[in-house]
Amino acid sequence: MDESPKDICVVTNSEKEGLPPSHPPSNTNGAAQQKPEDLVARAIAPVKREFLRPPPSSRTTQNDAASDTNVKQSQSNVVKEKKSKRQLKRERRQEQKSALNLCPEIAKTGDVNTCPYKDKCRFSHDIQAFMAQKPADLEGECPFITADAPCPYGLACRFAGTHKDGASAATANVLKKSSEVNGLSKDVQKLLWKNKMCFTKADSVIKSLGLMGPNLKTKKLDDKEEDEVVLNGSQAADETECKKVADDSVDCSDCPPTYAAPDNVEEACATDELRPSKKAKSVVDEMCTDEVENGATVLEKDIEKNSTETESVHTVDDVFAEPDISLKIHPREKKLIDFREKMYLAPLTTVGNLPFRRVCKILGADVTCGEMAMCTNLLQGQASEWALLRRHSSEDLFGVQICGAHPDTVARTVELIDKECTVDFIDINMGCPIDIVVNKGAGSSLLMKPLRMKGIIKAASGTVDKPITVKVRTGYFEGKNRIDSLIADIGSWGATAVTIHGRSRQQRYSKLADWDYIYQCGRKAPSALQVLGNGDIFSYLDWNNHISDCPELSTCMIARGALIKGILACYNS
């Protein structure tokens, strides 16, 4: 539609603020006769006169403003009483108990007896009061009708009038359980909170690799001390009997006159009771059968001997308690995932949540991965971090991405995920450029520590049977690429696949990805290691070009292209 200069009017600042213009527009003079191009050049919006709204009079606006200020002043003159925490808590409870907030369990089923909390429930159980104040239903039908699934909102749904009769909450719960998996149970969470979770596989692998840190050793000794304290406390009667046996076993006729055998024995027993010996149980038992030779007891020698024997017994027990490392599955027997020519959706931290992955799965994504989760947060049982590991039933090839700085934490996290979650592979992020992650020694800071990378990959791959993949960048500093020198070792360490982002940590997401370097790494990689490329794939043409230019690449990972240009929808079409 052509715009003539006569139809264009200038919107000035005074008109935007609601004040009358100082010079009313005219059709013959002023800026109204200017062309739209001239107005745009002067940063003035050309608007047609028919779309302009006449500004209100200044008197009315001033009167309204004055009245508003008077009302505010009158309200401010009234001193507001500061409510205590108890009053605020009471009001919150009253709001929850009001008819507006119906119990979710009762809303699903329509039965008051289905609430597990009964009278202790924080929400209202009055269905009639809720239905009386509920607004009218919206136009249309409930979207769960077309999905042949019961509505999880029940009576609280704004389309409740279109619900089918007989929809029960049991079917809704079954649907929820079948659609989403990888939840954290309360029992496991309590064990993680109290730091009582057992990681036998991870600890044995870390010990075999020689990566057992001092913290793990001290924790093991502390556990032994706690057990022995309980045993010593339960055998106080045995110690008293021991003194009697020791006194009876002493024969004063055979003792030289320079020694007082009974006194020495009693002093030795007394000192043993006061000494905080870790092996007090075994020492006391042996003391009961000790005899005095030449008027002097041989308790000191026997204590040393018995302590070494008990230490050897504990070490033997520890060896039998740990799983046999020789029985672990050979790398050739592990499950492998073929990523070749599969559409791989990147984890996309803070964006790639479960609903987004479901949409991408419908649009053609073959492989999906959860958002990055920190190992320390998972081991602490944080519910917000475990929510990142959730999986939908439509994700047939799904993995989780974790990030850690030390082999022991990564190995324990991998073992915990293997026990509690259902995943197809576990990805270790060694390319995260975030400062908080890098300062802790994780993420892309591992690119400068190849020995640490080796320990993490070996510990993770030796703990579980699932495939372990790694995500890296070209290097830490710009212009100093180093993954090409580690690509062969990464495969020998136990990784199944490696994803290379064609940028350094210093680049972050600026400049273009170096795909020539990704091709170079793909050609140097061993045949058993799958190499995936990542960076600047915004169309299906880019994806096809990278695969055709370097046949050694298994596939390409799509990250921001799925957000900006909808590459998945374009590729699927």
TrEMBL record:
Cofactor list: FMN
InterPro entries assigned: Aldolase_TIM, DUS-like_FMN-bd, tRNA_hU_synthase_CS, Znf_CCCH
Gene3D superfamilies (UniProt xref): Aldolase class I, Zinc finger, CCCH-type
Presence of keyword Ribosomal protein: no
Molecular-function annotations in GO: flavin adenine dinucleotide binding; RNA binding; tRNA-dihydrouridine47 synthase activity; zinc ion binding
Enzyme class: oxidoreductase
Keyword Glycosyltransferase: no
Keywords on record: Flavoprotein, FMN, Metal-binding, mRNA processing, NAD, NADP, Oxidoreductase, Repeat, tRNA processing, Zinc, Zinc-finger
Pfam families in the cross-refs: Dus, zf-CCCH_DUS3L
Disordered: region residues: 1-98
Reported function: Catalyzes the synthesis of dihydrouridine, a modified base found in the D-loop of most tRNAs. Specifically modifies U47 in cytoplasmic tRNAs. Catalyzes the synthesis of dihydrouridine in some mRNAs, thereby affecting their translation.
Protein name according to UniProt: tRNA-dihydrouridine(47) synthase [NAD(P)(+)]
Species: Durio zibethinus (Durian)
Gene: LOC111297356
